[in-house]
Amino acid sequence: MNAGLDARLARADARLRRDYPGADGGRQPVHTVYVPADRIRRGLAAAWGEQAVAALRAFAPGAAELAAATGLEEADVAAAQPRVLAKLDREPVEDLRVDAEDGYGVRTDDEEDAHVGAAAAALGADVAAGTAPPGVGIRMKGMAAEGRRRGTRSLALFLSGLLEAAGGLPEGLRITLPKITSVEQVEAAAWALARMERLFGLAEGRLRFELQVETPQCVIGPGGTADLARMVRAGGGRVTALHFGTYDYTAACGVTAAHQAMDHPAADYAKAVMQVAAAGTGVRLSDGAANVLPVGAAEQVHAAWRLHTRLVVRALERAFYQGWDMHPHQLPTRYLATYVFYRRAFGPAAARLADYLGSVGGTVLDEPATAQALAAVLTRGLQCGALDEPEVAAACGAGADDLAALAQRRVG
């Protein structure tokens, strides 16, 4: 009987392993910073860090002022603030995207060629010098008829320039595909990347891409189906992440400009579909951006910081561990909110995981899947700098490698 069951379910088992491989255990950035192609310069990440530190000194130099400005508890801020300052000095940007799409606008071909080429050269030089962020890449124009030729041209120029300046493609290379409206566009993007791999002599599958979810058609297709799940699979293993485009999506749903926001119910619905479509696939999720920038007078900066902090914490609580940042002054609250979140989670998660790993009778009986979630939150905290390995190991009895292995979950 057992052999018969195995035979009957062999195809289903293979499909499950193929479509739901689980997380790869690699590091996910806490944010993506978008900078228009014509503003990319060498050392840009470090310059953003310096501007972020200057904003903290000008508008909230102490823990009490920063707590008042962000709405967080002063004790939490005081514990996290030294780590935030160290992060802004050491690694202020985790993932940098050259924006050749909405944030850049429509230029002549000669202008875009020049800007994309210069951006690739600058980033490539930083990669070669070891000063680039862990993740770098480009948001090209999408596969819609009016933009796809320009998009693939800019992508080819970017890859060529990066290869020349860096002597190879960085491990953290990322390509963002915006304005998706059909499964066929994802298939076409995968086909185009395969052609570029042959053009540049790259290994098959080296070029992978993120899907930007910013159209209603991307969430619910014309037949009433959740096409986003099909899009993930249509990439043939090349799709790495789903990024939510807050303002295009809510505008397309008829939300007026005054109410377009990351926490609008229309946005929450789309992100819930994204979450289910990506679950178990290893495809990562990213929330969008807060468009209220922390600039101007102190009260304006504080109001924007409070909003940004609330939205970052809200996203983290809903398992969106990445978002977008558009201005250097958003970095302090990105890291502060993220670090406070992980440090608050640290004690309870480590205690429960210690009980689970030691089979100690605690007050909560955790399932293996919950233990994996506990390991995942500690791993994410370690990766972004919110936690240190010695304190985590002392609290739960497991090191970073063991926690990362436990956090990798497969379906079935």
Automatic annotation (TrEMBL):
The UniProt keywords, alphabetically, are:
Magnesium, Metal-binding
Q: Which InterPro entries match?
A: DUF6986 (IPR054255), Pyrv/PenolPyrv_kinase-like_dom (IPR015813), Pyrv_kinase-like_dom_sf (IPR040442)
Q: Which cofactor does it need?
A: Mg(2+)
Specify the superkingdom: Bacteria
Q: Where is the signal peptide?
A: none
Asked if the record carries the keyword Metal-binding, the reply is yes
Record carries keyword Protease: no
Per its record, how is this protein called by name? Answer: DUF6986 family protein
The taxonomy runs: Bacteria, Bacillati, Actinomycetota, Actinomycetes, Streptosporangiales
